[in-house]
Amino acid sequence: MKALLLGSIGTLSDTSELQREAFNAAFLRHGLDWSWDRDDYRDMLRASGGQDRIETQAAAEGISVDAAAIHATKSAMFQEMLNQGRADPRPGVMDAIERARADGTKLGFVTTTSRANVDSVLAALDIVPETFDIITSSDDVTHGKPASEVYHLAAERLAVSRADCTVVEDNVGGVRAALDAGMACIAWPNENTADHDFGGVRVAGTNLGDTLYPATADAR
């Protein structure tokens, strides 16, 4: 492994429930009586794209909404939640980052969410951007995940073969993007994607550091 690529906000902090809360708050702000419960949201997470989920809901109800505006409100509310300290690093992720840096492994935070979301989660977790050799966002690609474009871009910018990259993803769309780019991928489901089918991809245990660096874990 020459590059370790953390593929979504959810690989740093399990924010899935915060995001659902932000969606529901945004719906109220826009005068919609929608309320996504946890079971519905779990099913929605089988596909990538928050704005697409809003458009799908509107189509199902036969109404027209400004999905982009609603999603922008949701993102602003989510960022405010992060600014309020409502996020913690997932178990072992900081250990994995530190070990990768110590080993000289290149590090990437390879998302296709907004740069504002990226900046907010890094600030909430006290992670300086310079921790990573590359950080991507929706600004960097034409097509978000599950398209593999962002992973091709990351390998190119890091000057590393895609075959030498290991990706960690918490959702099916992200896993698909990594595999389609020809990269090894480890699924690390969040609390709302734990029952999703990752197609036989290796699934990380509770602690990411122990999964990626088992010899270090055994030595503790």
Number of helices: 11
Output the strand order for the largest sheet.
Answer: 3-2-1-4-5
Helix content: 40-55%
- In total, how many domains does the architecture comprise? 2
Largest sheet, strands/sense/barrel? 5 strands, parallel
CATH superfamily of the largest domain: HAD superfamily/HAD-like
Using only C-alpha atoms, the radius of gyration works out to 17 Å
**By helix and strand content, what is the structural category?**
alpha/beta
CATH second-level architecture of the largest domain: 3-Layer(aba) Sandwich
Order of helices and strands: EHHHHHHEHEHEHEHH
Shape: globular
Number of strands: 5
Query: In whole angstroms, how far apart are the ends?
Result: 23 Å
CATH third-tier fold name of the largest domain: Rossmann fold
User: Strand content of the residues, in percent?
Assistant: 5-15%
Query: Briefly, what CATH class of the largest domain?
Result: Alpha Beta
Mean pLDDT: 94
Uncertain ranges: none
Pfam family, one: Hydrolase
InterPro entries: CbbY-like, HAD-like_sf, HAD-SF_hydro_IA, HAD_sf, PGP-like_dom2
EC number: 3.1.3.-
Organism: Jannaschia donghaensis
